[in-house]
Design brief:
The protein is an all-alpha fold. It has a domain of about 140 residues: Tetracycline Repressor, domain 2, CATH 1.10.357.10. It is about 70% helix and about 0% strand.
Protein backbone atom coordinates (compact mmCIF):
# COMPACT_ATOMS: atom_id res chain seq x y z
CA UNK A 1 0.00 0.00 0.00
CA UNK A 2 1.46 3.38 -1.03
CA UNK A 3 2.23 6.10 1.44
CA UNK A 4 -0.32 8.88 1.79
CA UNK A 5 0.54 12.50 1.27
CA UNK A 6 1.93 14.25 4.30
CA UNK A 7 0.19 17.17 5.98
CA UNK A 8 1.04 20.35 4.13
CA UNK A 9 1.66 18.61 0.82
CA UNK A 10 -0.81 20.84 -1.05
CA UNK A 11 0.56 23.95 0.64
CA UNK A 12 4.06 23.01 -0.49
CA UNK A 13 2.85 22.50 -4.05
CA UNK A 14 1.29 25.96 -4.02
CA UNK A 15 4.51 27.46 -2.70
CA UNK A 16 6.48 25.76 -5.46
CA UNK A 17 4.06 27.02 -8.11
CA UNK A 18 4.27 30.57 -6.73
CA UNK A 19 8.07 30.54 -6.76
CA UNK A 20 8.24 28.98 -10.22
CA UNK A 21 5.71 31.50 -11.54
CA UNK A 22 7.82 34.36 -10.22
CA UNK A 23 10.94 32.98 -11.87
CA UNK A 24 9.15 32.31 -15.17
CA UNK A 25 7.66 35.81 -15.08
CA UNK A 26 10.93 37.59 -14.33
CA UNK A 27 13.46 35.40 -16.13
CA UNK A 28 11.34 33.56 -18.67
CA UNK A 29 10.41 29.90 -18.84
CA UNK A 30 13.27 28.93 -21.15
CA UNK A 31 15.92 30.66 -19.02
CA UNK A 32 14.80 29.10 -15.72
CA UNK A 33 16.14 25.75 -14.52
CA UNK A 34 14.74 23.28 -12.03
CA UNK A 35 17.82 23.93 -9.90
CA UNK A 36 16.80 27.60 -9.65
CA UNK A 37 13.23 26.68 -8.74
CA UNK A 38 14.45 24.31 -6.04
CA UNK A 39 16.78 26.96 -4.64
CA UNK A 40 14.01 29.58 -4.59
CA UNK A 41 11.80 27.15 -2.68
CA UNK A 42 14.52 26.14 -0.24
CA UNK A 43 14.26 22.54 -1.39
CA UNK A 44 16.65 19.99 -2.79
CA UNK A 45 16.21 19.17 -6.44
CA UNK A 46 15.21 15.61 -5.49
CA UNK A 47 12.47 16.94 -3.22
CA UNK A 48 11.23 19.26 -5.96
CA UNK A 49 10.92 16.29 -8.33
CA UNK A 50 8.75 14.62 -5.69
CA UNK A 51 6.13 17.30 -6.37
CA UNK A 52 6.63 18.02 -10.07
CA UNK A 53 8.26 15.69 -12.57
CA UNK A 54 9.86 18.46 -14.66
CA UNK A 55 9.80 22.13 -15.58
CA UNK A 56 7.09 21.58 -18.16
CA UNK A 57 4.76 20.19 -15.49
CA UNK A 58 5.33 23.37 -13.51
CA UNK A 59 4.46 25.55 -16.49
CA UNK A 60 1.25 23.67 -17.25
CA UNK A 61 0.20 23.63 -13.58
CA UNK A 62 0.75 27.38 -13.21
CA UNK A 63 -1.34 28.23 -16.27
CA UNK A 64 -4.06 25.65 -15.70
CA UNK A 65 -4.41 26.35 -11.99
CA UNK A 66 -4.62 30.10 -12.58
CA UNK A 67 -7.38 29.77 -15.17
CA UNK A 68 -9.22 27.23 -13.00
CA UNK A 69 -9.15 29.72 -10.11
CA UNK A 70 -10.52 32.45 -12.38
CA UNK A 71 -13.31 30.12 -13.47
CA UNK A 72 -14.20 29.52 -9.83
CA UNK A 73 -14.30 33.27 -9.23
CA UNK A 74 -16.64 33.78 -12.17
CA UNK A 75 -18.90 30.96 -11.00
CA UNK A 76 -19.12 32.42 -7.49
CA UNK A 77 -19.74 35.95 -8.76
CA UNK A 78 -22.54 34.82 -11.08
CA UNK A 79 -24.26 32.59 -8.54
CA UNK A 80 -25.25 35.42 -6.20
CA UNK A 81 -27.77 37.31 -8.34
CA UNK A 82 -29.47 37.35 -11.71
CA UNK A 83 -29.43 41.16 -12.07
CA UNK A 84 -26.94 41.96 -14.88
CA UNK A 85 -25.46 45.18 -13.47
CA UNK A 86 -24.88 43.63 -10.05
CA UNK A 87 -23.33 40.61 -11.75
CA UNK A 88 -20.92 42.76 -13.74
CA UNK A 89 -19.94 44.72 -10.63
CA UNK A 90 -19.22 41.47 -8.79
CA UNK A 91 -17.26 40.03 -11.72
CA UNK A 92 -15.01 43.07 -12.06
CA UNK A 93 -14.43 43.36 -8.31
CA UNK A 94 -13.46 39.71 -7.94
CA UNK A 95 -11.27 39.74 -11.04
CA UNK A 96 -9.32 42.82 -9.90
CA UNK A 97 -8.91 41.33 -6.41
CA UNK A 98 -7.54 38.09 -7.83
CA UNK A 99 -5.04 39.80 -10.08
CA UNK A 100 -3.68 41.76 -7.12
CA UNK A 101 -2.06 38.54 -5.84
CA UNK A 102 -1.63 36.63 -9.08
CA UNK A 103 0.55 38.89 -11.19
CA UNK A 104 3.25 36.30 -11.82
CA UNK A 105 0.78 33.57 -12.75
CA UNK A 106 -1.02 35.98 -15.06
CA UNK A 107 2.22 36.91 -16.79
CA UNK A 108 3.00 33.24 -17.31
CA UNK A 109 -0.49 32.67 -18.68
CA UNK A 110 -0.22 35.49 -21.19
CA UNK A 111 3.44 35.21 -22.19
CA UNK A 112 4.76 31.71 -21.56
CA UNK A 113 1.78 29.54 -22.48
CA UNK A 114 3.23 29.34 -26.01
CA UNK A 115 5.66 26.74 -24.69
CA UNK A 116 2.85 24.31 -23.90
CA UNK A 117 2.22 21.35 -26.14
CA UNK A 118 -0.81 21.76 -28.44
CA UNK A 119 -3.26 19.69 -26.39
CA UNK A 120 -2.31 21.38 -23.12
CA UNK A 121 -2.35 24.84 -24.68
CA UNK A 122 -5.78 24.11 -26.16
CA UNK A 123 -7.08 23.06 -22.72
CA UNK A 124 -5.90 26.32 -21.14
CA UNK A 125 -7.13 28.48 -24.03
CA UNK A 126 -10.53 26.77 -24.00
CA UNK A 127 -10.86 27.67 -20.33
CA UNK A 128 -9.92 31.26 -21.12
CA UNK A 129 -12.54 31.37 -23.85
CA UNK A 130 -15.14 30.15 -21.37
CA UNK A 131 -14.22 33.04 -19.06
CA UNK A 132 -14.58 35.56 -21.87
CA UNK A 133 -17.92 34.01 -22.85
CA UNK A 134 -19.23 34.35 -19.30
CA UNK A 135 -18.34 38.05 -19.20
CA UNK A 136 -19.70 38.59 -22.71
CA UNK A 137 -23.00 37.02 -21.68
CA UNK A 138 -23.39 39.56 -18.88
CA UNK A 139 -22.52 42.39 -21.29
CA UNK A 140 -25.22 41.06 -23.61
CA UNK A 141 -27.71 40.87 -20.73
CA UNK A 142 -26.95 44.51 -19.89
CA UNK A 143 -27.22 45.63 -23.51
CA UNK A 144 -29.04 43.17 -25.77
CA UNK A 145 -28.49 45.51 -28.72
CA UNK A 146 -24.73 45.11 -28.31
CA UNK A 147 -25.12 41.35 -28.36
CA UNK A 148 -27.15 41.55 -31.55
CA UNK A 149 -24.43 43.72 -33.10
CA UNK A 150 -21.78 41.14 -32.11
CA UNK A 151 -20.10 43.65 -29.80
CA UNK A 152 -20.38 41.76 -26.51
CA UNK A 153 -17.11 39.90 -26.95
CA UNK A 154 -15.05 42.88 -28.25
CA UNK A 155 -16.23 44.97 -25.31
CA UNK A 156 -15.36 42.14 -22.95
CA UNK A 157 -11.87 42.02 -24.40
CA UNK A 158 -11.53 45.77 -23.83
CA UNK A 159 -12.53 45.22 -20.21
CA UNK A 160 -9.97 42.44 -19.82
CA UNK A 161 -7.40 44.75 -21.36
CA UNK A 162 -8.01 47.27 -18.58
CA UNK A 163 -7.76 44.70 -15.82
CA UNK A 164 -5.19 42.24 -17.13
CA UNK A 165 -2.32 44.69 -17.46
CA UNK A 166 -2.99 46.81 -14.40
CA UNK A 167 0.02 45.27 -12.68
CA UNK A 168 2.39 46.76 -15.28
CA UNK A 169 1.80 50.32 -14.08
CA UNK A 170 0.42 50.11 -10.54
CA UNK A 171 3.20 50.67 -8.01
CA UNK A 172 3.18 48.80 -4.66
CA UNK A 173 2.37 51.31 -1.93
CA UNK A 174 1.15 53.87 -4.46
CA UNK A 175 -1.88 56.14 -4.18
CA UNK A 176 -4.18 53.53 -5.71
CA UNK A 177 -4.36 49.85 -4.88
CA UNK A 178 -6.49 47.12 -6.40
CA UNK A 179 -9.29 47.68 -3.89
CA UNK A 180 -9.53 51.31 -4.98
CA UNK A 181 -9.27 50.47 -8.68
CA UNK A 182 -12.07 47.89 -8.79
CA UNK A 183 -14.93 50.44 -8.50
CA UNK A 184 -13.11 52.81 -10.86
CA UNK A 185 -12.90 50.11 -13.53
CA UNK A 186 -16.56 49.25 -12.92
CA UNK A 187 -17.69 52.89 -13.20
CA UNK A 188 -15.63 53.45 -16.35
CA UNK A 189 -16.85 50.31 -18.07
CA UNK A 190 -20.52 50.71 -17.15
CA UNK A 191 -20.90 54.49 -17.23
CA UNK A 192 -17.98 56.07 -19.01
CA UNK A 193 -15.54 58.70 -17.77
CA UNK A 194 -18.31 60.88 -16.35
CA UNK A 195 -19.39 58.09 -14.00
CA UNK A 196 -15.98 57.58 -12.35
CA UNK A 197 -15.98 58.49 -8.66
CA UNK A 198 -12.79 59.90 -7.12
CA UNK A 199 -11.50 57.61 -4.33
CA UNK A 200 -11.42 59.33 -0.91
CA UNK A 201 -7.61 59.08 -0.61
CA UNK A 202 -6.88 60.49 -4.05
CA UNK A 203 -7.15 64.26 -3.28
CA UNK A 204 -4.79 64.00 -0.30
CA UNK A 205 -2.25 62.12 -2.38
CA UNK A 206 -2.53 64.70 -5.16
CA UNK A 207 -1.90 67.54 -2.69
CA UNK A 208 1.15 65.70 -1.32
CA UNK A 209 2.46 65.19 -4.83
CA UNK A 210 2.07 68.90 -5.62
CA UNK A 211 3.95 69.86 -2.44
CA UNK A 212 6.81 67.49 -3.30
CA UNK A 213 7.01 68.95 -6.80
Amino acid sequence: MGRGRHAGYDDQRETILAQAAHLFATRGYSATSMNEVAEACGLSKATLYHYYRDKYALLFSIADTHVERLQGIVHDALSGTREPRTRMQALIKRLVEEYADAQDAHWVLTSEVRFLEPADRRRVLDRERALVAAFAQVVGDLRPDLKEAALSKPLTMLLFGMVNWMFTWMKPGGALDHDAMAPIVTDLFLGGLGAVQVPPAAPAHAAKTRRQA
